[in-house]
Amino acid sequence: LSLTMTETLHSQGLARGAGIISLEVDRVTSLYGEAVERRKSLHQKVEQLYANNEELFRNIEELANVTTQSPEINNIKGKILEQARETFSRKLSTLDFGDLLEFEKNKHDLLFSLYQEIEEVSERGAVLDQIQIRSELLTLEELMKARKKPVHDEGEVERKTLLDEISKMAENLLPLPEYGPKVEQLMRDITGESVERLAMMKSQLGMYLAEVTQKTKETFVIKEELLQLRHRLSRCVFCEVGELEKRIDELVAEPIVTKEELNALAQEVEVVEEREEEIARSIRETQNMRMVVGVMEETLKELGYQPLSGINFEGEPIYVDTPWMGYKVKLVFNRRGEVLVKLVRIFRSEE
């Protein structure tokens, strides 16, 4: 915009150029306002969908908690509740409200289908309780079949389309360890499912794919940070870091890497760096002490004194001969750089 202003003022003249710039600023301001309003609208829709999904889940939970005399019915309701809980608890970590809205829509479709299923199963359970025919209770397999609606010829095209879409979506998810087993379970006996059940499965896979898309974006950034950790390890001299480097390389090769995995490795790298600095500091201190010892010994010799033992920094006293009979200089050093100097009289080799 700044470059456009400059070019306009030069080419159109100041007065006319100022007018054109004013229009351009108004246009940009208008677009910005529209973007803000759109984001606000999307945010409201996401919040509303989330509230609807929460209500659906509570309704499913309420129906699941109503037990019947049929263990099979109770078992099915428990499985539906488990799937609903897993669906409702899923979150998408992104600031893009468009992606969030699509994610919550998929979640809503799936929860609504589960609500319809558990409602139907609850009705069956109520009927069975009323007539109390325990000997003729349907088995779990029969109940599952009874819930499948017959496929009519007019729905065959839609059904085939759903099967193709589900198959393509599953292909992208099956290689991923986090989603592969779930998708395999979902895809079992898929050919006999009704259109309604297939639509529910498509919504479920759509949620998984939305998560994978977001995690892929996050993984790109995480891998950049992993490479930085690798570079930091390459500067280590004293510590063995081969195993840690290998684990970083293995993570970089993975299609999806989580923030938790990055943080765990970052903590280990920090521990190694602290240990590396500790060793380096100890070496520097030792080198400095050796230099100080050398200077002190040379200075004492120049003054005509001869230490009776080597200078140390462990708090052990050092005695230096003096010209006075029976007297010595006592020196005590420590690692903090403090020195104690005393003139002592020696009696039988003791103070």
Fold blueprint:
Layout: H1 2-12, H2 14-64, H3 71-88, H4 97-131, H5 140-147, H6 156-173, H7 180-187, H8 195-234, H9 242-252, H10 259-302, E1 318-321, E2 327-333, E3 339-345
Could you please describe the fold and organization of this structure?
The protein is mainly α. Helices cover 70% and strands 5% of the residues. It has 10 helices and 3 strands, in the order H-H-H-H-H-H-H-H-H-H-E-E-E. The chain has helices at 2-12, 14-64, 71-88, 97-131, 140-147, 156-173, 180-187, 195-234, 242-252, 259-302, and strands at 318-321, 327-333, 339-345. A 3-stranded antiparallel β-sheet has the order 1-2-3, with no helix packed on it. Strand 1 and strand 2 (327-333) form a beta hairpin. Helix 1 packs antiparallel against helix 2, helix 6 (156-173) packs parallel to helix 8 (195-234) and helix 8 packs antiparallel against helix 9. Mean pLDDT is 76; it is low at 132-141.
Gross geometry: elongated
Beta-strand percent range = 5-15%
User: Strand count, sense and closure of the main sheet?
Assistant: 3 strands, antiparallel
User: What is the succession of H and E elements?
Assistant: HHHHHHHHHHEEE
Structural class: mainly alpha
The low-confidence parts are 132-141
The strand line-up of the biggest sheet is 1-2-3
**Tally of strands:** 3
Mean pLDDT: 76
